[in-house]
Design a protein that fits this description.
Number of strands of chain A: 3
Strand content of chain B: 35-45%
Shape of chain A: flat
Number of helices of chain B: 3
CATH superfamily of the largest domain in chain B: Galactose-binding domain-like
CATH architecture of the largest domain in chain B: Sandwich
Largest sheet of chain A: 3 strands, antiparallel
CATH class of the largest domain in chain B: Mainly Beta
Oligomer: heterodimer
Helix content of chain B: under 10%
Number of domains of chain B: 2
Chain lengths: 52, 333
C-alpha cells in the first residue's frame, strides 16, 4: 500500500489536502488528508476494537 | 410478552396470518449475506470493510472473507465464509456491525436477542457479543465502546452441521450507538473456516425466525447503499453514473448522483480504471480523483479527476475502461 498527498484548490480559492491510497492491482481510495490521519491514529491501537 | 415475540413465536410458528418476513424486525442489515458490493472474496490482515456490506472485519492475522453459496443452512442462499490463512487467536477471526444512532436509539434500555446460524470446517468455539457507545454514530475503530454481559447464551460451537447461536442482553439506557460481534472464541488453526448467516438482532428475549431488515433483497441493497455503494462498469467503457466537463486540459469535473440518500456525506471514494469520454469521443484515463467537499452531500458528489490532453469546456461522461472498473462512495461507521 502506497499513499500520495494531493493539494487541490477549491472554488472559493481555499486549498484542501487529499490522500490517495494505492492498494495495488490498480485499485485506489481517495479521502481528505484529515480523515486519513484520524483513521491512522485510531488504528494504531487495535486492542480497543477487539473482543472485550 | 413483547409484540415481536407474540407475532413471531406464537402466530408464525403456529401458522398464523403474519409472515415471518417483517421489515424492520431485524436491526442488522445484510444478515443473510446477500450483498457483497466491494468484492465476493477478499484477503486481508488488518481491519476494515472488504467483502460483505455492513460487516467490518477485525482481522489480527491473514484471513479471507467470501460469499459462500454451497455451505448454507436450509432456507438461505448465502453465508459468510471466514477462512483463517494463519493461526488465529481468540477474536482475530471476527466480524462486527455498527448500528447507527437513528436505529440504535430504539434499543436503548431494551432487552434484545442476537442470533445467528453457525458452521465450522472443524469443531470451533464461537462467541457473540454486543457493545454500546454513548457517542452519536460512533465508528467501529473510534474507541469508546463498552461490552454488555449476556443475561443468557452468548457462546456456542460451530460444527459440520448448521446450528443456531443466541444471546440475550439488556442495552443500557444511555446507549447511542450499538455494535454486534461474532468471533472465534478459541484459537483456530490455519486453513480452518467458520461460516455465519441469518444474523439477527431483535427486541425481546426470544430468537424468532430470521427476517431481512429490508424485507426483500432490493430493500436490503438499499439499506446497504445508505452506507456504501459501488457502481461497476460491467463492460468495456461501461457507464458509471457520472457526467461533467473538462475544466482544464488536465482537470475533469465530474458529478455523480447516489442511488439512495446516504447516511452522511461520504468520507472516501474507491475507484479503479476510470476514464472520461468527451463530446468529441476522446477517451482520457483518470490517474487520481479528489472529492470536492464544497459540492458533496448525501445525495451526490462532485469530484476532480486528473488526466491530460483534454480540450477545455467539453462535456464528459464517466466510464470504466474495463468490465471490472468501478467507483464507490463510503459513509460507513
Amino acid at each position: 500500500m502506497n499513499t500520495q498527498i494531493i493539494t487541490t484548490t477549491n472554488l472559493d480559492g481555499t486549498t484542501t489536502d487529499h490522500v490517495i491510497i494505492d492498494w495495488g492491482n490498480n485499485q485506489f481510495t481517495s479521502m481528505l488528508k484529515a480523515d486519513y490521519e484520524a483513521q491512522q491514529a485510531v488504528q494504531a491501537n487495535p486492542a480497543q476494537y477487539g473482543v472485550r | 410478552m413483547s409484540r415481536a415475540q407474540l407475532t413471531s413465536t406464537v402466530e408464525q410458528n403456529g401458522g398464523g396470518s403474519l409472515s415471518s418476513f417483517i421489515a424492520g424486525k431485524n436491526f442488522l442489515a445484510n444478515g443473510a449475506m446477500d450483498i457483497f458490493q466491494r468484492s465476493t472474496s477478499a484477503t486481508f490482515s488488518s481491519g476494515g470493510y472488504f467483502a460483505p456490506d455492513r460487516w467490518v472485519a477485525i482481522a489480527g492475522t491473514s484471513q479471507t472473507f467470501s460469499q459462500e453459496s454451497t455451505i448454507v443452512p436450509s432456507g438461505f442462499r448465502y453465508s459468510l465464509k471466514m477462512l483463517a490463512n494463519a493461526t488465529a487467536t481468540l477474536g482475530q477471526l471476527q466480524t462486527q456491525q455498527v448500528i447507527e444512532t437513528a436505529n440504535a436509539i430504539y434499543l436503548a434500555g431494551q432487552t434484545v436477542t442476537f442470533s445467528a446460524y453457525i458452521y465450522g470446517s472443524s469443531s470451533t468455539s464461537i462467541g457473540i457479543g454486543i457493545q454500546y457507545n454513548t457517542s452519536v454514530d460512533a465508528t467501529w475503530n473510534g474507541g469508546g465502546w463498552s461490552s454488555i454481559s449476556a443475561t443468557s447464551g452468548g457462546t456456542g460451537t460451530a460444527t459440520t452441521s448448521w446450528s443456531k447461536i443466541t444471546g440475550t442482553y439488556t442495552i443500557p439506557s444511555n446507549a447511542k450507538t450499538v455494535l454486534v460481534q461474532i468471533y472465534n472464541n478459541a484459537t483456530v488453526s490455519s486453513s480452518a473456516a467458520i461460516y455465519f448467516t441469518g444474523l439477527q438482532l431483535e427486541l425481546g428475549s426470544v430468537a424468532t425466525p430470521f427476517s431481512r431488515a429490508g424485507g426483500t433483497v432490493q430493500g436490503e441493497l438499499a439499506l446497504c447503499q445508505r452506507y456504501y455503494w459501488r457502481g461497476i462498469s460491467g463492460a468495456s467503457y461501461g457507464f458509471l453514473n457520472g457526467a461533467g466537463f473538462s475544466y482544464t486540459s488536465s482537470n475533469a469535473q465530474i458529478s455523480v448522483t447516489y442511488p439512495v440518500t446516504m447516511r452522511a456525506i461520504p468520507s472516501s471514494v474507491d475507484y479503479s480504471s476510470l476514464v472520461v469520454q468527451d463530446s468529441a469521443a476522446g477517451i482520457f484515463s483518470l490517474s487520481s480523483i479528489t472529492l470536492d467537499a464544497s459540492v458533496t452531500n448525501t445525495i451526490g458528489a462532485s469530484f476532480a479527476g486528473t488526466t491530460s490532453g483534454m480540450t477545455t469546456n467539453r462535456f464528459l461522461r464517466l466510464l470504466g475502461s474495463g468490465s471490472t472498473a468501478y467507483i464507490g462512495f463510503s459513509a460507513e461507521l
